[in-house]
Amino acid sequence: MVLSTFLSAVANILHMVITAYIWVLIAAALISWIQPNPFNPIVQLLYKLTAPAYALVCKTRIPTVFGGIDLAPLLLIFALEFIDMFFIGLLHEIARSL
């Protein structure tokens, strides 16, 4: 009973973290289109939060298509959604079976 509640709580927290990071990725992608002031603290925070994930995706040499649009944010969002649906769902199923 306690382990089931703990796993369910961990799954819910991980879901919230993944969802928040997806919104950070979306905000950073939208801001990159308007060429913001790089000294703005919000812009700096968004770049610091997304730079490691972008570096991970850019190592795979993903081409830009459709007039130079970077697909890295979209791929990261798809990967995070997969993790959210599969692994968080798996944690919930394990918690229900206990």
TrEMBL record:
Transmembrane annotation, as ranges: 12-34, 71-91
Pfam entry (one): CCB3_YggT
Keyword terms of this UniProt record: Membrane, Transmembrane, Transmembrane helix
Similarity-based family: Belongs to the YggT family.
Protein name (record): YggT family protein
The species this protein was found in: Campylobacter magnus
